[in-house]
Amino acid sequence: MQSKAFRFPLSRLRLGTLALALAAFGAHAEVSVFSQPDSDFKGMIRPMTPNVLPGSEVEFRGMGFKPGQKVTLYRGSTALNVEPYVADAEGRLSGKFNVPADAVAARHPIILRASEPDAASVITLKVSKEVPQSGAEKFDIVGKPISRGLYQSAYSGKENALYVTASGGHHVPVTHSELLKVDADSLEVQARVTPAAVPGRDDGHVYAVYGVGVDDVNGHVWVTNTVENTLAVYRTGDLALVKQFAPGALPHGRDVIVDGKRSRVYASPVGESKLAVFDARTLGPLPGIEIASLSRRDKFSPFSLALDEDSGRVYTVSFSTAEVAVIDGASGKVEKVLPLSNAANASGIAYDKHANRILVAAQGSDNLLIIDADSGQTLHDVYVGAGALNVVYDPKAKLAFVSNRGAGTVTVVDKDGSIVANLDGGSLPNHLHDDGRGHVFLVNKARGAEDPRGDHLTRYTLKDR
To answer: Which DSSP symbol is given to 375?
Structure first.
């Protein structure tokens, strides 16, 4: 009898009451879930912790929110903050959250969920893992501070000197900048020059120098003036200015490299899908080399440059599309574009002519890729540390050196993809350069004016070569 009772129909009154309840619930749900969203959402957050490791605390700052807007961060369905962060009257907020100790080293999608008004976006949080320092006993290491704001270096065999650029940031006005000539053996500064002031300004802003390349054939040092979108040429002997190109000659120039044998100068305008080319003798511009990406959605954005002096080939890596371009310098044409696997924000490139391999450092994925230059096959994928920014190949030691800006280390890797050493790089290791004689030079940057481990020039030499 009890089982039959469940088959009795509901009365019309009860059905009406249920219908009204469901309608009311639906109306309430529609209002609360689909209320007016933030149709002009510009909120964003940026992690301030330079090296996020498993078990660490992440500090971040946010901006672009509506005053009073509430923000919760999620990894998957798990909230990272118990109480919402609330934007102040200027739409800014700040906070901290913890990364679990079992977090995998990877680029993690973090969902930013805002309310009052509603909005959402996805940001990427890179969690790195620590590579222990090792192998320092295998190297002679000498270093010293030489200027503020060190950026890059390049070697002159004719002068046995290292040319180092230094600039006080990328924000106008840049009032401190130097090009230095440093004895490669003693690391003593032999000469230094401050770039000329930019005409028409009264705030002390100069043609600040960043990228650097040496032309021993013509006795010139080429530098990029990134902030002013141009470049300049100085003499190797006394650092006298030879030519200052007009603003706009090189949009956001980063690297510059010289093929003295073929009288060609190549520069990478970051954000442009081409290399800029100049005549090393006349100092005049030549037709640029367009680089088409394999991606239909994005464009190739050249970053670092490497040169094979024997063949005249130029190698460059795209920061935006995870690709490498191989360029025939003689014809000025792209031979091929190779896709990269597991390379986020690839930034550094070098060429090993003995093994015909391309080496790529990727700061977004913390790794070094060793690639067969013919097939494009990745032979070794080596995790080296947070922010793998730059790489050089030392032909004497037959080793690759990678500067890890976030980790503060220089990782040394052999041809088999094994880590030979992981050396102290001080604060913010920035740029590496080899002299072809078995020495690798590092310039690093400081974390503020009182940082004793920053703005150093350091030379690494393998003891048993």
So the answer is: T
Please say whether the beta carbons of 252 and 226 come within 8 A. yes
Q: What token pair was written down for 291? A: 């680089």
**Confidence (pTM):** 0.89
Q: What is the mean pLDDT of the chain?
A: 92
Nearest-CA neighbor of 348 among 433, 235, 240? 433
pLDDT tens, position by position, 202-226: 999 999 999 999 999 999 999 999 9
Spatial strand order of the sheet with 212-215 comes to 212-215, 220-225, 230-235, 241-244
- Assigned superfamily of 136-462: YVTN repeat-like/Quinoprotein amine dehydrogenase (2.130.10.10)
409 phi and psi, to 5 degrees? -135, 165
Pick the CATH number of 1-127 from 3.30.40.10, 3.30.1330.60, 2.60.40.1930, 2.40.50.140: 2.60.40.1930
The two domains 1-127 and 136-462 share their CATH topology (first three levels equal): no
Mention every residue, 6+ apart, whose C-beta is less than 8 A from residue 372. 356, 357, 358, 379
Q: Among residues 320, 308, 304, which one has the least CA distance to residue 402? A: 304
Task: Kindly list the domain boundaries of the chain, sorted by start residue.
Answer: 1-127, 136-462
- The DSSP 8-state label assigned to residue 227 in this structure reads T
Both tokens of 105, joined, read 């080293």
**Span 371-393, pLDDT tens digits:** 999 999 999 999 999 999 999 99
Q: Is the dihedral of CA 129, 132, 138, 144 positive or negative?
A: positive
Tell me the C-alpha to C-alpha distance, in Å, between residue 267 and each of 250, 273, 318, 345: 8, 12, 13, 19
- Calculate the CA dihedral of residues 40, 43, 44, 48 and round it to 10 degrees: 160
Task: Tell me the C-alpha distance between 233 and 216, whole Å.
Answer: 13
| DSSP H or E segment with residue 431 | strand 429-434
Compute the radius of gyration of the chain from its Cα atoms: 27
